[in-house]
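[User] At your convenience, examine this fold.
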Amino acid sequence: MAENLNFESEQSWCYDNDSASCDVAGRLYTWAAAMESICPAGWHLPSSAEWKTLFDFVGEGFDTEGIRLKSQTGWKDSGYRGTNDFGFSALPAGYASYYRPVYVFEGAGRITEYWTSTEKEGPEAYAFVGALAYQHMTGFIYEERKEGASSVRCVKD
């Protein structure tokens, strides 16, 4: 997909609860919501291995995948601006952390996180995200709490 998913579901939000944010950068979803078949028929939530494959292909061994996947606008001025070489158009949608009993929206203009279908092994409630950040030329994969909210991009089957 060339844009973040913007399908309203029970465990999804617009950044800062502002519907205009959804119009620009899509919704933020919990991992459970992302796993509940919100991708259209014939599409799926990518695994962390699929994100790594994308980063390796786009970066061509030069660790520039972050720049090449980012949109040309919306990113904080003091960081690495995007070139959008592949039409991926990653916007800095931010994310939401869950601090019982509320969600706190963070990172708009600086980072975007995309859920993967890959859970972290062990008893903790974590899954992996593919991410791009304004201060990095690269893309990276790390673990995030499943109860938080991140963006979703679906991959064609």
